[in-house]
Design brief:
18% strand, 141 residues, Rossmann fold, single chain
Length: 141
């Protein structure tokens, strides 16, 4: 089983960016841990990060042919990108929406997600474990 693990805008800044909210780990170290988890359960991960909406859309489109599922932290695009929502629908692969922080405990504009309705499920608030839980859910473990 192949899974695309996709991170959107500003997530390349993890470790430096508001560590009290997002934790001290870098995206690189989180991805290294996720790779170990994937290896241990026979999942093949591919990691992507982009700050550009169009690039994220291209990556999601490519999952249609190349992946069995998607773990997506769309960052702030979660809250307003209808284009990313449409890409998830067009991809026709199960997608799990993830967030490091519990967006419902934060500012009101983060309470709304325009992508949840086209995702299989949503995991938020568990820091880097949100990604682990999403991978296990997609893998059916
Ligand atoms: C985030 C939450 C979003 O509201 C925010 O814009 C992010 C990160 C999270 O992982 O908690 O960039 O998706």
């Amino acid at each position: 089983m192949k899974i695309f693990i996709i991170n959107g805008p500003n997530l390349n800044m993890l470790g430096k960016r508001e560590p009290e909210i997002y934790g001290a780990d870098t995206l690189e170290s989180i991805n290294a841990e996720l790779k170990e988890l994937c290896d241990s359960i026979g999942v093949e991960p591919e990691f992507y990060q982009s700050n550009c909406e169009g690039e994220l859309i291209d990556i999601i489109h490519s999952a249609r042919e190349k992946a069995d599922g998607i773990v997506l932290n769309a960052g702030a695009y979660t809250h307003y990108s209808i284009a990313i929502r449409d890409a998830i629908s067009a991809c026709e692969k199960p997608c799990v929406e993830v967030h490091l922080s519990n967006v419902h405990k934060r500012e009101e504009f983060r309470h709304k997600s325009v992508i949840s309705a086209v995702c299989e499920g949503v995991i938020c608030g568990f820091g880097k474990d949100s990604y682990r839980l999403a991978i296990l859910a997609l893998a059916g473990k």
